[in-house]
Amino acid sequence: MSLADYFESTEGIGVLATSDSDGNVNAAIYARPYVIDENRIAFSMLERTSFANIQSNPKAAYLFAERGEGYEGKRLYLTKAGEETDRERIETIRRQRPSTRQPTEAKRHLVYFTVEKTRPLVG
Question: Which domains are assigned to the chain?
Fold first, then answer.
């Protein structure tokens, strides 16, 4: 199953792990990624700790645990590949998926990542 099909059809919870250039780690709950193609994903990010971390260290990991019994899911190992701040483009991509969060006027970034490796959640 492709990453696009997987994230389109699978319910669950995601965690994005980042660290700054000194190795200080942060983990944050993140929605499912926007799949650009099989090798690239994107996240809509506010200017908070995860965003600050990837400015100094482009490596990140995204863990997605599927809803239900057991421990099914994916781990994606990522490298930042770019970003944009075009508000219209970000809102267009965000409308692809209903959100439970209220819109905010805070500055958003659409951050692109190359998927370096994909592994199952367990094993």
Answer: 3-120 (2.30.110.10)
